[in-house]
Amino acid sequence: MSLLEIENVTLKFGGLTAVDNLSFTVEEGEVFAIVGPNGAGKSTVFNLISRFYDPYAGQIRFDGHNLLEVKPSGVAAYGVARTFQNIELFEHATVLQNLLVGRHRHRKTNLFSEILFTPSARRQELENREKVEEVIDFLDLQAYRDKMIAGLPYGVRKVVEVARALSTDPKLLLLDEPASGLSVEETTDMRWWIDDIRRQMGITVLMVEHDMGLVSGVSDRVLAMADGAKLALGTPAEVQSHPAVIEAYLGKAS
Amino acid sequence: MRIVFKTDYMQDIRPWKDGYQLSLYLILLAVVFAAPWILDVFYLGELTNVLIWAIAGMGLMVLTGHTGQASLGHAAFLAFGCYSNVILLEAGVPFILAFPLAGVITGIIGALVAIPALRLHGIYLAIFTLAMSILVDDIIVLTEPWSGGVSGKYIAGIDLFGLSIDRWGTPMLFYWLVLAVTVIVALGYINLLRSPLGRSFIAVRDSEVSAQAMGVDIARTKTISFGLSCMVTGWAGAFMGMFAGAFNNETFSVVISIELLMMIVIGGLGSIHGAFFGAIVIGFLPQFLSIAKEYVGALFGGSTVAIPGLEFGIFGMILIAFILFEPMGIYGRWLKIRTFFELFPFYRKDMFKRQKSYLKTERLR
């Protein structure tokens, strides 16, 4: 059984078909990339998995659970974490607080034990902090721990968002354009991190990315989309040389 | 400059940074506790009033400052707290039970109100809660058998542990009672902010989509926030009733709601300190104005003419000035002044430049 199964999913916004009868599966332990021109419906697929949209038709299953049965906030509980294309961090909080929100799905205390701050709440805080520190070490965020997000440069925010997603201890990590707006060095860092996330942490990665260097460098399989439909699916080399993909990007040879 | 070296995670989990900060707060608490021996009866009453407003401010701060839901209806919850406290006391419930219950009842009402309000954002939520504020006047008139309607209700002293506590008879005891509740509420608030629930409030305020993606249930979080906020506001309302002694349907008007919201904006949204700073401004501004008016009158030789609406005019101007020049309120200004002295002479004007952004409480959609 695959980790994530998207089966004949269709999504319509009024007359526009954003995702058209799309099917693919993501296997455990792989890095799966979705590429395609702007407006191809890549981010929409992410938003469908996050349950921000209800599909018009089709099935989405994760790890044996039917994702369409849960609320948007329930998706994280199964072990799906994500980042956003336009960074969605908690601006008026510190990096540490942002990452600790990522631990929210592991919350065991209730309102009363938290307001009294009982020993169990304290223990949970220490536990959360240790997990978050592991992520901070992994992504080299030590220098920014107590900084407000509102004062951070773009590149760091991008990394903090990945860190926040990793803090949830996910099985599947959805990265929406992790390298957009990053410098060449930062993109290289991101590439090694994605590789390490898969190899060291054993987390499956599904990403949307435009940077073909990054995509062919880290991903095992690539799905090319255009106008909400599947164009090609295979290894990065296969997809890059696929005639339909070349046509979608460059137009038909006349 | 004081640098705190961190060697233990507990240093971040504890509410105080180090022994120095803790001792400062303990000294402040000791001074405030000793106030009845320092101040005369008039100023003790004023200080009690400030503390009551601070409790109400903390109540609204949870909702507006930390969860990002603007409310113009908190006068209604002050009224609910005030009336349920008095009605319970009249029914023979001892104060030690009636007071907490008044808060709990108000909290439950608040959580119920939250359910339809959850779908509203920004200005629409403000209008919805504003309607609450106006409705409560009619509710009090309509429920005359319990609430006393237009003629209002009176509350004399109460008995607690065999002590008779009365705003006029034993102002010291009343002051200490209010102070105790203020400290308890503030401690609960601090605990809330350092635990997952408080962080989920902040998450909902700053970005609902990513809060959802992190597994935060938006509807539930907002409902809990409304409930907690209204519970604390209810306690403040109960004290306001005891402080005033007499109240009717017009005591908790829309004006109180607006004053409360203005108070936390001036104090500084998103910080517990802000509630206290705001309460000090709102508590002492009327006294300050009447003293200032005397001086101005003496200076120009005119008699002390009463200018209608002067207080609100000046209050409004202060509010506009803060929104324009210091969106983080008095607390934000205080942080800058403190940093200036801590880093002297290395403070630079640009240090807080990036942080001068408005709190994204609610995007209008």
TrEMBL record, chain A:
GO molecular function, one term: ATP binding
Stretches assigned to the ABC transporter domain: 4-252
Keywords in alphabetical order: ATP-binding, Nucleotide-binding, Transport
SUPFAM superfamilies to which the protein is assigned, alphabetical: P-loop containing nucleoside triphosphate hydrolases
Pfam families linked: ABC_tran, BCA_ABC_TP_C
PROSITE patterns according to UniProt: ABC_TRANSPORTER_2
Highest taxon, organism lineage: Bacteria
PANTHER family associated with the record: ABC TRANSPORTER ATP-BINDING PROTEIN, CONSERVED COMPONENT OF ABC TRANSPORTER FOR NATURAL AMINO ACIDS-RELATED
Stated name of the protein: ABC transporter ATP-binding protein
Organism: Ruegeria aquimaris
Taxonomic lineage of the native organism: Bacteria, Pseudomonadati, Pseudomonadota, Alphaproteobacteria, Rhodobacterales
UniProtKB/TrEMBL annotation, chain B:
InterPro entries: ABC_transp_permease (IPR001851), LivM-like (IPR043428)
Localization (cell): Cell membrane
Transmembrane stretches, start-end: 20-38, 44-63, 70-89, 95-115, 122-142, 173-192, 224-248, 260-285, 297-324
Membrane topology value: Multi-pass membrane protein
Keyword Membrane in record: yes
Keywords, in A-Z order: Cell membrane, Membrane, Transmembrane, Transmembrane helix
Name the record gives this protein: Branched-chain amino acid ABC transporter permease
Lineage start: Bacteria, Pseudomonadati, Pseudomonadota, Alphaproteobacteria, Rhodobacterales
